[in-house]
């Protein structure tokens, strides 16, 4: 199998992408805790930090567990539009997790059979995939709000992601800074994936 084979390129891209998504989901817990602490958003929603984190646990569990069909947070109401948006996010998260597990299983099998070379990109493609985020990085750094809007228009077909704090106060906690930090972590993990590959060449 050639190293620049389309399947190998696709495998590495989707493995890196889903690793970054899964990593960002995991690291979102301490990120949210830090954001709540420093932004004092707990004062806006009039809840303790630990109660907010308990509600966030309920939200994340709903988003990543395929058999949880209804979002129910103990201290945050959810409007119909917000519920529909979170259901759309759930589909993307579940898809990412499934692809991540498939890629991981392929990696484990290849390693066990000592056929890792079949999954290795050549240096040129590694650099190309490494540099992909650099295309959007300047835009995201200069105007994250605009990038955030573009991202939602790209992945969602409606405007349900525009939350009203009066009906969905969870948005007072999930601030723009929190989402920016999650995106930054995801991009960092993605870059590390290919940097590691370059260092082993």
Describe the structure.
With 201 residues, the chain is mostly helical. The protein has one domain (6-199). It is 72% helix and 0% strand. It contains seven helices and no strands. α1 packs antiparallel against α7 (176-199). The chain is globular and about 55 Å long.
Element-by-element helix/strand order = HHHHHHH
- DSSP summary: helix tally: 7
> Low-confidence parts lasting 5 or more residues at pLDDT below 50?
none
**Radius of gyration using CA atoms only:** 19 Å
What would you call the structural class? mainly alpha
Distance between the termini: 18 Å
State the share of residues found in helices, binned by percent: over 70%
Rounded mean pLDDT score: 92
Quaternary form: single chain
Summarize the structure.
This protein is mainly α.
Throw out a few tags for this protein.
201 residues; mainly alpha; globular
Strand and helix layout:
Elements: H1 6-39, H2 41-45, H3 49-64, H4 80-112, H5 123-142, H6 144-155, H7 176-199
Helix pairs in contact: 1-3, 1-4, 1-7, 5-6, 5-7
